[in-house]
Design goal:
17 helices; mainly alpha; single chain; about 425 residues; globular
């Protein structure tokens, strides 16, 4: 399995240096072969260990889904980015493997959410390719997103000290996952209109209200993602180093204030600084995560060889620790490199887009994605305090899965749009 994901990751970066379309398609085909072989081997281990006939059926429907997702996407969207489709499948594959090992029932629920999300978001590239009017409604994005965050702040369900979700007819939804998308569209539309100081000031105020509302909800992980994304989009749109410096300084001051004002933030910072001093309480989660990562070593303990269930919230915030323990550091590093490959593709699409609106959307979504990956992995490895955010496409969580599908399909829409323009130019 480690060899297969290493080969897959090699082609993930080799792809960018290939100029010939046939070579790129061949690399993507080899990636798919590696993914399906890895998926088969992991599920073989799981089935042999559990002896569950239900998991045999579950494996079969996963294979059917991946085949349909890959080939139907290419059938309906001729110019689709195949490397992004492959990476979505590999990340989902890893998520299904580790969740099935941890809790088969949750893995099956996750699979149902993935299928529904894939179907719902299938139309997004078609919309992005044809609806330029998306640039005309900035205040719809800004006001609706802010309103949702305020509702969560006032009446949301509390989880681990933060108000994160709303429950509608028994279904729990985390609105901040979707407001991320509307937030990027709002900022992109505002900076597309103008980057004069007055417009920048108005946009900054609305962005600050988003972040402040998240802070009041004690959802500081999402608040940090929003802040970093806005700051980077502002810098790209204006090329003003003063804005970047002032923003970074204000962010550092806000982080310091958050530690002093919120007890659960202070608790996480104390656990980050010295988890061993209170290993039975505050430091338990991060200590167990570090034990898991260290125990796994380079090659892992093998599926069912470790004890990832000892880590609290292991299927969400700390799924990277479970991967490191049982599949090994090499496998975990490859997952990080695949995420980095997605980010590089986002940035390449952003650079190629001529319209500033589309350029900022691709850049903003890419920044939001890689910041979330960094916060998740950084918290697991004690590089930064834990922020309570999930690893996209891998961690358990319906809102995270759906919002990440939306994000990737918007990027696919931009890629398809650009490829179509390039083909028209070649014909002329």
């Amino acid at each position: 399995m480690i060899l297969l994901i290493a080969i897959y990751t090699y082609y993930n970066f080799r792809f960018f240096s290939m100029k010939n379309e046939e070579d790129r398609n061949r690399a993507c085909q080899r990636q798919m072969v590696c993914m399906f072989m890895l998926h088969f081997l992991a599920n073989l281990v799981i089935i042999l260990h559990t002896g569950s006939e239900m998991l045999i059926l579950f494996y079969g429907v996963q294979v059917l889904f991946f085949l349909c997702y890959v080939f139907l996407y290419r059938f309906f969207y001729r110019n689709v980015s195949r490397i992004l489709v492959n990476n979505v499948c590999m990340l989902l594959c890893t998520g299904f493997i580790i969740l099935t090992r941890l809790n088969p029932e949750k893995a099956m629920r996750q699979f149902a959410i993935v299928v529904i999300s894939a179907v719902i978001t299938w139309i997004i590239p078609f919309i992005i390719d044809r609806v330029w009017q998306l640039v005309k409604i900035p205040w719809v994005y800004g006001s609706l997103g802010l309103l949702l965050l305020i509702v969560v702040c006032l009446v949301g369900n509390s989880s681990y000290g933060a108000q994160l979700s709303l429950t509608v007819k028994g279904i729990s939804v985390q609105p901040s996952e979707f407001v991320k998308i509307s937030f990027v569209f709002f900022v992109a539309t505002m900076f597309y209109r103008s980057t004069e100081f007055k417009n920048v000031a108005v946009t900054t105020v609305v962005a600050a209200l988003h972040v402040l509302t998240l802070v009041l909800s004690k959802d500081l992980g999402s608040a940090l993602i929003f802040f970093v994304t806005y700051l980077m989009m502002l810098f790209v749109a204006t090329s003003n180093w003063l804005y970047l410096g002032c923003g970074a300084a204000s962010g550092a001051a806000a982080a310091f204030a958050a530690e002093k004002l919120f007890s659960h933030v202070r608790r996480r910072v104390e656990a980050w600084r010295d988890p061993w001093s209170d290993i039975d309480d505050k430091g338990y989660q991060i200590a167990q995560s570090l034990f898991a990562v260290g125990t796994g070593g380079w090659f892992g303990m093998g599926l069912y060889g470790g004890m990832p269930e000892k880590i609290p919230v292991v299927d969400k915030d700390f799924v990277f620790a479970a991967i490191s323990e049982e599949l090994g550091a090499i496998y975990a590093i490859c997952i990080l490199l695949i995420c980095l490959g997605c980010f590089l593709q986002f940035m390449m699409i952003a650079m190629k887009m001529q319209a500033m609106f589309y350029k900022l959307i691709a850049f903003g979504l890419g920044t939001m994605y890689i910041t979330q990956v960094f916060l998740t992995v950084g918290g697991v490895l004690k590089f930064i305090p834990s922020t309570g955010v999930t690893l996209p496409f891998v961690s358990y969580g319906g809102s995270s899965i759906l919002s990440t599908f939306v994000l990737f399909n918007i990027i696919q829409g931009l890629y398809i749009l650009k490829r179509g323009e390039e083909e028209e130019d070649e014909e002329e």
